[in-house]
Every structure is written in C-alpha cells, then in structure tokens.
Batch of 3 targets.
Target 1
Amino acid sequence: MRNDICPCFQYYFPFFTVRSETTINIRPAQGAGDAAHSYFSELITTILNRTSSTYGLAKVNVPVENLTQNRSLRLLKEGRRVDLNWAGINLKREQDLRPIRIPLNMGLLGYRLLVIRQDRLSEFDQIRTPDQLNKLIACQGQYWPDSDIIEDNGYIVN
C-alpha cells in the first residue's frame, strides 16, 4: 500500500492492524462414531483459541473427503491438504514426520486390553504361557503401530 494515498489513515487509526486468520487442516473423522476425532478437534480448537493473542488467529478446517489414517499421514508428509494429524508412532512415522511429543491422552493410549469372543473363553482360560498365546492370530488395525510391536515379538497379526 502506498503511504502517499492516504497519510491520514495511519495517523487517525494507528491501532488498526490487519490480522489474517490461519487455517489448520486436520483429517476428517473415520466414521460417524469417531469419538477420538471429536476429542482431538475440540482440543486443537481450544488450544488455538487460548493462544491466539500470542500466535494469532487460527481456525480448524476439516476436509469433507474421506481419508484413511494412512492416506492422511501421507498427505501430511507431502504438505497437501492436511496440516496436523494425531496418530500412534513408529520408527517410520518418526522419520517421515515431525512428532510433537505431547501426551494428548495423558498417557492412557499406552494401555491395552485383550478382547475375546465369549464362545472362546474356555480356550483362553487354558493359556498359561506366551508360547501358547503365540499360536493364535491377533486381530489388529492394519496401520496401527502396535501391529509392528506384536509381530516383532513373534506373534501373528491379521
């Protein structure tokens, strides 16, 4: 802007500044019942609101397209359409992306429960050693970092 066009503008409105709002694109929910998405998107929005006086205005944008976790992580790595994501970590993700080491779940994400079908309860009651458990197949999310850990310990993951 040329100052000679309206020099009085700066004089009469010295407090006036134009602040643009930053848009932070996050991945969409994985489905209608994705409670984790609601939690994280509200957490991010709260943080952005509480830090706006220091870092400037920002808003969260959720793309309408359906993205798997793996695809959203790839888009984040490529710098396209996703600016911030939350996911469990593994060595490859730490090498490819920039982890922000803040325990968003207050460390509770590290707790695991085994779930079995009711009709197999007596079979699991007989398991006493890791070798006996190792003969079974674990069902785990395809891109969950836990799968690598389970497989590295000699278990079969499907």
Note: The beta strands are 22-25, 58-61, 137-138, 156-157.
Target 2
Amino acid sequence: MTADLPGLSIIKPGFMTLLQDSGRRGVMRQGLACGGPMDRHAWAWANRLVGNPWHTAALEVSFGGFECMAETHLQIAITGAYSSLHINGNPQPRWTALNINPGDRLVLGHPASGVRVYLAVKGGFALTPGLGGSNSTLVREGTGACGETALHCRPVIICPAIL
C-alpha cells in the first residue's frame, strides 16, 4: 500500500463480498443481467448516509465474516442485515455515518437475521466503470470490478480520504 493509494485493506473477505452499484442498463438485449444490489433499500441508504450519489458502488457482504483495515481517514456507513459491527474491538451502531482512522480494524459478524450487509464509503471506491457503465459484480457472467470472482481478487480497495 502506498501513501498515494489509500483505501481499505481486506483482511477477511467473508463468504461472498461483492462490489455493487445500481447495476447496468441497456445490456439485457445482449443476454446479460442488470446486476446491482440484492437489497436496493439498504444499499441506497448506506450511500445516502455518507452523502454519495446514486449509482455509487458499495460492498455487499453476504453472510458476514468480513474484516478490513482503514489505510486512511474514511467515513463509512453499514446497513442491511443485522450483524454485529466492531471497530477496534468496540461495538458500533449501524445505519449511521461513522468516521474511521488509519489503522482502524472493522469487523462484521455473521448476521442474526437477513443475509446481506452493505458498507459504503464517502466518495465511493476508485473504480473504472465496466460493461454498461457499471461496477456491479455478476459472478455468473464474469462482469464487474472483480470479474467473475468475489472480493478475493482485491487485497486493497482504493477510496478517497476525508479530512
């Protein structure tokens, strides 16, 4: 990790963590699915809580077990399925914006109810839009920021710092 490329270092990607934005448009005629988050309500609120515009990619963590470390000052929001959220071992609220610092370790437990948890970062992730102008991952079709794989392909996700 270099100082000019701050972001989130993925420690444990969990069972299936994907990058999801609002999905791709105009690709169904090519036989491709639109993609996007499974829980659009929770995804949209995560982005809204940190002031991101519609279509901003967030992490969709399925079944929990996710752990990451901040490499810079970030504002995040966690929404979706009920799972524990700890930063540096301390329980934190969900459905609100939280400021985290370099070196802070974020751990999402396994959901007590529901399946998918969304983690949005203020300013979004530094991604190059793919097919249909989207970064949404569709494992079956091999599209999105990580192609046909879950987040295992990216040890660091670049995102802008907040000061």
Note: Helices lie at 40-49.
Target 3
Amino acid sequence: MRALRLQEWKSEPALVDMPEPTPGPGQVVVRIGAAGACHSDLHLMDEFGAGSMPWNPPFTLGHENAGWVHALGHGVTGLAVGQPVAVYGAWGCGVCARCRVGVDTYCENPAGGHRAVSAAGQAASRRPRT
C-alpha cells in the first residue's frame, strides 16, 4: 500500500510504499478509497517541530478518510468486511467529556485514537493511533 508520509518536521511529504497492516484486538484496517490532506496537514508540514505533538515523524498525513473495511481484529463488533466507512477523529479520542459534546479539537486524550464510522453514521469501533 502507498501512503503520503511526513518523514521529518518542516519538510515536504513523500509518497512511500508501506507494508499492509494486520489488525490487532479491537482494531480495524480500512482500505482507503479517498483521503484528504487539508490545512491541518499543512500546519504539520510547515509549522510544527519536535515536542509539539504527542508523536513524531514519520507518520501518515491525511486524516479525512473514507473507504471499506478490509480486515477486523479480534473482538470488533458492528462492522463487516467490505462495509463502507469514514474515519472520524483527527485529534479526538471520542470518549472524553469534550469529545462527547462535539469539541474534539479540545480533546483531553488526543493520542487516544480514531473511530471508524459506518455509512449509516454509527460509530462502530476504535482504532488506536500508530
């Protein structure tokens, strides 16, 4: 699979080949059909440096993703392989008090993960950030 990756702070991203992920318990692999790189990605590329985020490069850009469930880890419920999904949660964990009232930009646990949302709009599972 290919991914647009920021290899180091304050640099241009590179399209690189990545190994296909295998889901762990409670995780979902989504085959991405479309991904958006937006203003947040530009900030990460141009303005952030070491220690400014809870993670460091290299990492994959583009947090506005939609696709299909490709593989399910043990214990995942509410999703099926082939089901269309959108990945929601650029920064938010989805479970803290701020995320639950819709202000995930002020998340109390920003490294907490992403949520897969089915085409019906139903949050079905969480996948920790890697």
Note: Helices lie at 39-46, 97-100.
